[in-house]
Amino acid sequence: MTKRSVARDILITVVILALAFVISVSFQKVFGIDEQITTLFAFAVFLISLTTRGYVYGIFSAIVSTLAINYAFTFPYFAFDFITPVNLISAVVMIIIAVLTGALTTKVKRNEEIRLESEKERMRANLLRAVSHDIRTPLTTIYGSAAALLEDGEYLSPEQKNKMLQSIRDDSVWLVRMVENLLSVTRIDSGNVKISKSPTVLDELVSSVLLKFKKRYPDRKVEVLLPDEVLIIPMDAMLIEQVLVNILENAVIHSEGMTRLILRVYVREDVAVFEVQDNGCGISKEKMQDLFLGYYEHKEAPADSQKKNTGIGLSVCATIIGAHGGKISAENVPSGGALFRFILRLEEKGNE
Amino acid sequence: MNNKYKILVIEDESNIRSLISTMLEANGYQVIQCETCDSAILLFESYLPDLAILDLGLPDADGLKFLRYVRKDSLTPVVVLSARTDESDKISALDLGANDYVTKPFSSGELLARIRAALRNTRHCNDEGRLPGGKFVLGEMTIDYDARRTFLGGEEVKLTQTEYNILAFLSEHCGKLMTYSAVIKEIWGERADDSSIKKLQVNMANIRRKFGITPAEPKYIYNELGVGYRMDHSV
């Protein structure tokens, strides 16, 4: 593995062996007992094999322990003696303990890794399935409308044509957003988290988010409540922008009867709190459970294109916020409507 | 206008090229098309277009090669087309002298607006430029270069030296997207790093506050997250 884990393992080995030695010496000096010292070292070897990677450290400490016992703690004192059968037996036992424990822990660790890997694989497969399902709907519209316009264009009224063109545009916009989300997920999900945080002024983030949102929903007004001072938050601005756009859009798509949409940001102690609140229908209990999970039951997935599932959108949000070391949550407001909230750590308040 | 603007479209994907060309012709521009960097340079020399639309990923060479060639001795506006993923390419293209970029996929309205802004920008420089008396006017905002003072709807807006310098610099390049590093180099003469970008952003936030520009309704100064600022009439 890495240099660091090797250093850690060496440290563990040395510390445990030293401890065993110190305790043994004090046993011998204070109580004058020799008998339990072998057991003590056996335990030390067991501990080392358990906590380090692979066999090397366990076997090494078994050999060191045998030598130490042989040299310091058994008759003849301060001399090596490999002829006495007791000493030989304790040496063999020690090495067997090291090998067995090492084998066992290695196996357990490997199983754990395999389990994690397969869990990830399962999530990925779910995501893929959900995405393919979600992509088919808009593609059907685009393909069907375009084909109809090409083949039967002359029989269609201008209004009909217009409507088809509009749905082609709307659905391709939706696909664009889906692709953006997928790009972000693959960027983050591919093992090592790769987000590059840079200090970002809140005003600029919000202005950029609203511009994007307005482009897609020109008639939807967003009420904005920001702190008075200039707030600088370390973040990957492109990704956080995507989170906010996703949440706002989610409100527009899913919140029936919504008349107000509020974006609020405030500072609480050392974090910035972002809230998106609407006064629509709120979130149902079943949906609330796996809102951010990224996969959803297929029976729930609506077949009509009107209600596209944004399961992916919200799971992307959760992944991005998670990668920033923040938290995201959703709740229903007593007065009606849903509230999405996420927090980001503030490095400092900027005000020159 | 009796003579049409000539626009050179450099894009290797035929669908996108014909889409852009159709769109431009429908809006009264004259279009010259090509799909490689080398032919672009040739066509640029022979037609002297008023503006070029440049895709960065060309089959024979990086689109930046064309940009470098053009910028050697010409101020012809260049609008770059880019995919979302090459963030750093965008910035290097802007720093090499591109006027603007449009991210694929784009809407026709977006591209046309950028083209208009880029063309307006060069006209600004040619004749309108700094108005008589050294004044710059954008909507309700006025900058008096000689007196180093700024006004909003007749009322003076008090800026610090640095804030004024930033605003004046952006106004001199009105319509063009200026990267952080370009602004920082001009104002502080430094290389852009995290702390200088932060300094710039805070100054900009203060300028916006003084002009009463809110994130909900941006005007005059627009920001491109992670890239830079643009002063303009509209988006």
Description:
The complex is a heterodimer of chains A (352) and B (235). By secondary structure, chain A is of the alpha+beta class. Chain A has helices at residues 3-31, 37-51, 56-73, 85-152, 158-189, 202-216, 237-254, 285-289, 311-323; strands at residues 198-201, 223-225, 232-235, 261-268, 271-278, 327-332, 338-345. Chain A contains nine helices and seven strands. In chain A, the strands form two sheets. A five-stranded mixed sheet of chain A has the order 2-4-5-7-6. In chain A, helix 1 runs parallel beside helix 3 (56-73). Chain A starts with a helix and ends in a 7-residue tail after the last strand. By secondary structure, chain B is of the alpha/beta class. Chain B contains eight helices and twelve strands. In chain B, the strands form three sheets. Chain B has a five-stranded parallel sheet, with helices on both faces. In chain B, helix 2 (37-47) packs parallel to helix 3 and helix 6 crosses helix 8 (194-210). Chain B is globular and about 50 Å long.
Q: Cα-atom Rg of chain B, whole angstroms?
A: 18 Å
How many distinct folded domains of chain B? 2
- Rg of chain A to the nearest angstrom? 32 Å
**Biggest chain contact:** A-B, 28 and 26 residues
CATH architecture of the largest domain in chain A: 2-Layer Sandwich
Termini of chain A, distance in Å?
45 Å
Shape of chain A: elongated
Number of strands of chain A: 7
Question: What is the approximate shape of chain B?
Answer: globular
Q: Could you tell me how far the N terminus lies from the C terminus of chain B, measured between alpha carbons in angstroms?
A: 24 Å
| CATH C-level of the largest domain in chain B | Alpha Beta
In total, how many domains does the architecture of chain A comprise?
2
**CATH class membership of the largest domain in chain A:** Alpha Beta
